[in-house]
Specification:
heterodimer, A: alpha+beta, 2 domains, 13 strands, B: alpha/beta, four-stranded antiparallel sheet
Chain lengths: ~375, ~240
């Protein structure tokens, strides 16, 4: 580290430039990871944070909740299966709601639940679904940004039905739309308004959320449900989330960008160091002539990369949290600290990887290069 | 006491038809306190000679002893450690590390040997002062003159208290006054510290400072002048 620190200190501009590139790449990596996490939440936080282990769908609807119709009685059938701790009915419908105060329209996803079940959302303001008032609804807190307050009435179009907001929940979105929690009978009236749209199923629901008693047996229980109950397909919560329309594509795009950024980081470091190393060939020759071992020179190079990377990544993290603090709430951005830590270490690893080329070059330099050049 | 002993050293580059005999059975002894100059035309084998004497290159044949230790068969890693401990190098003008101050150039030697401490710091300052660099201790090479750089190089070569000092064209980029100053300083240090020194040079004006002049031509030692009185007889 003797040489490493002194060179960093002396060639400030040179190493500032490479550090700045590293910092920008790190910053972009963290912003993208925040965006990925934000989009994933935005797309399906209702599923992502749902208090269930699996979701049961109608068979052959490609795990799409909006196409799935199941009879309510299957909830009880599933509850009786060994390994199932609890099951709850779930209804889904994408709608446009209208605040009757100011006629502003808000697109939303209705999730219909039994207020007594484990799917009842966490209330941050007001009260939960009122069992006495079948027209009560609980909405995601993003409705507040549209001026919705407790006691307001929302009209669900195209029906002329009006519902009263009694409470707010948080982090509940589905298909990038905020969620309206509603009683199942009212949802059934909206969803199956057309005669025959219920496929002749009495008391229809969209799907069934399942809690298992032992997480380790999740797969076995799911298989057992599919075997015992006819015409159903079971997916774990994660699979159901990934199967949301557009979810895989969004995540795939961002993952690809992240992978490329890691490769770019590695190459930028590799190329920059290699050019510097080539420039210093004669210097390394002199150092070797006066007795420097390869390990001594390698330690200094790795030390430089390490110091530079740690600084750059750290500043990148600071800037990322700075951005996170000022980013508007509409932007789907949410930082996952554990991911930031993991990506920091990945960046550190790829930059050290980038120094390999130069290490190989240094090992090849012969001390003889320092001698006899005036001949 | 003989510090450097080279017995029948030969060096062949390449193999078969394309092989080149760079050194042909060269023998030389250098005693403590002796300052030897190596001269000769380009391609004569001086660089090969210095590389072998400096433990940078292994001879094809022959035996080399430095401070009575045979280094003919050491591995490259052991040779590097040997150089660090026993040899001092003064190379051409660009041989200082550009991002180290004069003092750090010296401390680097002890850092590599794992012996950097307060004493080393004091020693480095003393060495620089004895070479007239008191005001330049914390200067980078970019702000030193050519002569000052080479004086720092001399100080660095002395930092590990070596048995032998090897100089490769130390005056290559200096004008004759500065060059002479540097060589005289080197000679003085060699005498007062009782070291053996070997210097490869083109510069004939420096030769009177040396104790002995060895001329290499076509890989063979041609003339050896033994005493100062005879020096004028050497036709170089």
């Amino acid at each position: 580290m003797f040489l490493a620190l002194r060179e960093l200190k002396h060639s400030k501009l040179r190493y500032f430039l490479i550090g700045a590139i590293m910092m920008l790449i790190a910053w972009l990596v963290f912003l993208l990871s925040g965006l990925a996490n934000g989009l994933s939440s935005d797309n399906g936080s209702a599923l992502k944070y749902m208090n269930a282990d699996s979701v049961v769908f109608q068979k052959d609807v490609r795990l799409f909740l909006h196409r799935s119709i199941l009879p309510m009685e299957k909830v009880d059938d599933i509850t009786e299966i060994t390994g199932v701790n609890n099951a709850a009915p779930l209804g889904q419908l994408t709608v446009t709601s209208e605040n009757i105060n100011d006629s502003s329209q808000i697109d939303a996803t209705i999730l219909a639940i039994d207020p007594k079940s484990f799917l009842a959302p966490k209330i941050i303001d007001g009260i939960g679904l009122d069992e006495a008032d079948s027209n009560s609804i609980v909405v995601n807190d993003s409705f507040k940004r549209h001026g919705v307050e407790i006691g307001d009435k929302l009209k669900i179009t195209p029906s002329e039905k009006e519902f009263t907001v009694v409470g707010f929940t948080t982090r509940q979105t589905y298909n990038h739309l905020p969620v309206i929690f509603m009683h199942i009978p009212q949802w059934q009236e909206l969803k199956f308004a057309l005669p025959g749209s219920n496929a002749n199923i009495e008391n229809p629901i969209s799907g069934i959320a399942v809690q298992v008693s032992d997480d380790a047996l999740l797969e076995e229980v799911n298989t057992e449900i599919e075997k015992t109950i006819t015409d159903v397909e079971v997916a774990t919560r994660q699979v159901a989330l990934e199967n949301l329309p557009g979810y895989k594509e969004e995540m795939g795009t961002i993952t690809m960008m992240l992978v490329f950024l890691f490769i770019i980081a590695s190459f930028v470091i590799a190329v920059f160091l290699y050019v510097i190393t080539l420039q210093k060939t004669n210097q390394f020759g002199v150092l070797k002539a006066i007795g420097a071992k390869n390990s001594f020179l390698a330690k200094n190079l790795i030390g430089q990369v390490f110091i530079l990377s740690v600084f750059s990544i750290f500043i990148g993290v600071l800037l990322t949290y700075g951005v996170a603090a000022i980013i508007p709430p509409e932007v789907p951005f949410s930082l996952d600290t554990s991911l930031v830590v993991i990506y920091s270490f990945v960046l550190l690893a790829v930059s050290l990887l980038g120094s390999l080329l130069s290490l190989r070059r240094i090992a090849k330099i012969d001390a003889l290069e320092a001698i006899g050049r005036a001949d | 006491m003989i510090k450097l002993q080279m017995d029948n050293i030969s060096k062949v580059y390449g193999k078969g038809n394309t092989s080149v005999l760079a050194l042909d059975s060269v023998s030389l002894q250098v005693k403590a306190g002796e300052f030897v100059a190596i001269v000769g035309p380009s391609g004569s084998g001086k660089t090969t000679f210095l590389s072998i004497a400096g433990a940078l290159l292994q001879p094809t044949e022959g035996r080399i002893l430095i401070d009575e230790k045979d280094i003919s068969n050491l591995s490259p890693a052991k040779l590097a450690a040997f150089r660090l401990k026993n040899l001092g190098f003064i190379l051409q003008s660009s041989n200082l590390v550009p991002y180290l101050t004069a003092k750090d150039q010296l401390l680097l030697i002890t850092e590599m040997a794992g012996t950097r401490n307060k004493e080393a710091n004091v020693k480095a300052i003393h060495l620089l002062e004895s070479l007239g660099l008191k005001e330049r201790i914390n200067h980078y090479p970019e702000s030193l003159s050519g002569g000052e750089k080479q004086r720092v190089a001399i100080a660095r070569a002395l930092m590990n208290d070596p048995e032998i000092i090897l100089a490769d064209e130390p005056t290559a980029s200096l004008d004759s006054n500065r060059g002479r100053e540097v060589v005289e300083m080197l000679a003085r240090e060699v005498k007062t510290r009782n070291k053996a020194a070997v210097m490869v040079t083109h510069d004939e004006r420096m030769l009177d400072v040396c104790d002995r002049i060895v001329r290499i031509e076509d890989g063979k030692i041609k003339e050896i002048v033994l005493s100062k009185e005879d020096r004028t007889l050497v036709n170089i």
